């Protein structure tokens, strides 16, 4: 550790190595953070120094991730040193840096460590909230990260007494660890599942025993003596609770043997406390007394350790029948318990004070920002007001000049508009005259066509009369006379096409519309429809076609039927609408 620390210190800015690239400097930050992590549980002073150096360099480089990790480690080491208020302030500063940064890589570490912090001071709701936030920043591909997050959530639910949820999350962690063959994680998960079922309101000691044995198997594969010692001690406690004292004693001795070889002083001491409790229940009072005295000689007892020590001795003296001694120790136990409560209250007050100071600082910063924003806004408003005043004065001057110019332009525009309107009116009148003349011409052509048709009808009727006189037909001169009439008037056969052409110039698409509606209409019926459109009466049509008015009425009835019109519909109105 000393070599690594010196190597890192030699690379720090300002050490005479000259300026370096940002990439090299961020590598230095990472080395400092690694040194802080390496010394976290062994040398708090070094850890604090490495963290502060990493934070200072990260701030200079605007390296948010490095500064955030530095404050996270600082929060950890302050907590280990019982500086609870400073620990909370460091974690909150880390969160503030993370919130302001687009780089969220450190958030899973931050929320995980903050959750452990809250868990240790038994603020389980805050701890669970932090662990769930940590889970949100762990990628789905990180099996190890997910497994550890579920493990921490399960342990926290167990501490809060919610064994059902504790088991749910621990089993989630277990499933991932089993799928990925993560033996190191498996050992811790099995151990905590055992604790959950052993410490439940309604303990399930057999299930707890099975999990502790599985923890031993997993820990044996990885050489995890820490989990092994706890698992053996826990199995000893379960056997003790079930009255299986010999087996309990054997498990307890195995736990003490492992902790002694591994150098886990704290675990060794608590294994011996469990060993003494078993001896007391077996009524081996002298052996229990000797073991407790050995604990006092061998280990340094903190207040919590002394509390457990006094409780073990009180239980021993009660079972031994020495109630006077038990009562004396009870008074000592009360004093120790009061001291622990006082320390806990002090810790909680430190954290509360840190929270108050941190949030007060945040409030002051927010107020200052608001004040600065208001001042900036006021300056902007003043500048805008001055600019607007100048603009207003300029607009007044420009407006006066513009009004006279606009007035002249309007007068000119009005003159031009009047001239244009007069010209358009003259053109419109001229166009109307041309349209009227054209319409009159077409109507004259149409009327001429109708007259021609009428003439054709009379000629045909005359031919018909001549042909009806069979006796005269024998006279060649009579027949030749009929032929001359036909040859003279043969051009009249073209009158229907001319009629159609002139009619559709006045009434476009009339015949095509009728053809679409009633394609079965005959040529004579189409003619009658045209005459109806020309507002000709039945008598006029009858005279033109050389038929009786009743024949015209019958023809109109057939036209109406072919058009599919109901009886109540007026044929003239319908044809006029086409």
Automatic annotation (TrEMBL):
Coiled coil region boundaries: 411-438
One Gene Ontology molecular-function label: DNA binding
Location in or out of the cell: Cytoplasm
Protein name from the UniProt record: HTH luxR-type domain-containing protein
PANTHER family referenced in this protein's UniProt entry, alphabetically: TETRATRICOPEPTIDE REPEAT PROTEIN 29 (PTHR46630)
GO biological process, one term: regulation of DNA-templated transcription
Keywords for the protein's UniProt record, in alphabetical order: Coiled coil, Cytoplasm, Membrane, Repeat, TPR repeat, Transmembrane, Transmembrane helix
Family to which the UniProt record says this protein belongs: Belongs to the Rap family.
TPR repeats: 108-141, 147-180, 229-262
Major site of localization recorded for this protein: cytoplasm
Organism expressing this protein natively: Niabella ginsenosidivorans
One GO CC term, this protein: cytoplasm
């Amino acid at each position: 550790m000393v070599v690594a620390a010196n190597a890192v210190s030699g690379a720090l800015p300002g050490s005479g190595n000259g300026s370096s690239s940002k990439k090299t400097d961020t590598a230095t930050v990472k080395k400092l953070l690694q040194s802080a992590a390496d010394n976290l549980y062994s040398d708090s002073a070094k850890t604090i120094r490495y963290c502060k150096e990493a934070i200072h360099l990260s701030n200079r480089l605007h390296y948010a991730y490095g500064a955030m990790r530095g404050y996270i480690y600082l929060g950890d080491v302050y907590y280990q040193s019982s500086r609870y208020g400073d620990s909370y302030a460091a974690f909150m500063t880390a969160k503030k840096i993370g919130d302001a940064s687009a780089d969220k890589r450190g958030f899973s570490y931050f929320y995980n460590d903050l959750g452990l912090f809250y868990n240790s001071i038994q603020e389980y709701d805050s701890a669970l909230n932090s662990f769930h936030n940590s889970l949100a920043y762990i990628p789905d591909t990180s099996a190890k990260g997910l497994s550890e997050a579920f493990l921490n959530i399960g342990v926290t639910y167990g501490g809060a007494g919610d064994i059902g949820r504790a088991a749910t999350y621990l089993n989630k962690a277990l499933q991932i660890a089993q799928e990925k063959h993560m033996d190191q994680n498996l050992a811790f998960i099995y151990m905590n599942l055992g604790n959950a079922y052993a410490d439940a309101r309604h303990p399930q000691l057999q299930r707890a025993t099975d999990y502790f044995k599985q923890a031993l198997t997993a820990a044996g594969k990885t050489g995890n003596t820490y989990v092994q010692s706890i698992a053996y001690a826990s199995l000893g406690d379960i056997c003790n609770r079930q009255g299986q004292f010999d087996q309990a004693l054997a498990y307890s001795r195995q736990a003490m043997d492992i902790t002694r070889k591994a150098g886990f002083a704290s675990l060794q001491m608590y294994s011996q406390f469990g060993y003494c409790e078993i001896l007391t229940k077996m009524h081996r009072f002298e052996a229990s007394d000797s073991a407790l005295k050995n604990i006092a000689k061998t280990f340094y007892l903190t207040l919590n350790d002394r509390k457990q020590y006094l409780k073990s001795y009180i239980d021993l003296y009660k079972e031994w029948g020495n109630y006077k001694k038990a009562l004396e120790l009870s008074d000592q136990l009360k004093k120790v318990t009061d001291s622990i409560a006082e320390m806990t209250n002090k810790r909680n007050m430190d954290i509360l004070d840190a929270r108050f100071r941190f949030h007060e600082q945040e409030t002051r910063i927010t107020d200052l920002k608001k004040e600065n924003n208001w001042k900036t806004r006021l300056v902007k408003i003043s500048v805008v007001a001055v600019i607007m005043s100048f603009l207003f004065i300029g607009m007044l001057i420009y407006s006066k000049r513009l009004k006279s110019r606009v007035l002249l332009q309007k007068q000119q525009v009005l003159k031009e508009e009047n001239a244009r309107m007069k010209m358009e009116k003259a053109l419109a009148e001229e166009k109307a005259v041309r349209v009227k003349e054209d319409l009159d011409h077409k109507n004259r052509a149409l009327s001429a066509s109708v007259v021609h048709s009428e003439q054709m009808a009379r000629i045909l009727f005359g031919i018909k009369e001549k042909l009806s006189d069979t006796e005269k037909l024998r006279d060649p001169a009579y027949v030749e006379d009929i032929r001359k009439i036909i040859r003279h008037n043969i051009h009249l056969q073209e009158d229907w096409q001319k009629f159609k052409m002139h009619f559709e110039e006045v009434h476009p698409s009339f015949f095509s519309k009728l053809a679409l509606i009633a394609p079965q209409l005959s040529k004579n019926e189409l003619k009658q429809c045209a005459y109806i459109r020309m507002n000709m009466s039945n008598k006029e049509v009858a005279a033109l076609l050389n038929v009786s008015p009743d024949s015209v009425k019958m023809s109109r009835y057939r036209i109406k039927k072919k058009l599919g019109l109901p009886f109540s519909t007026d044929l003239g109105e319908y044809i006029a609408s086409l």
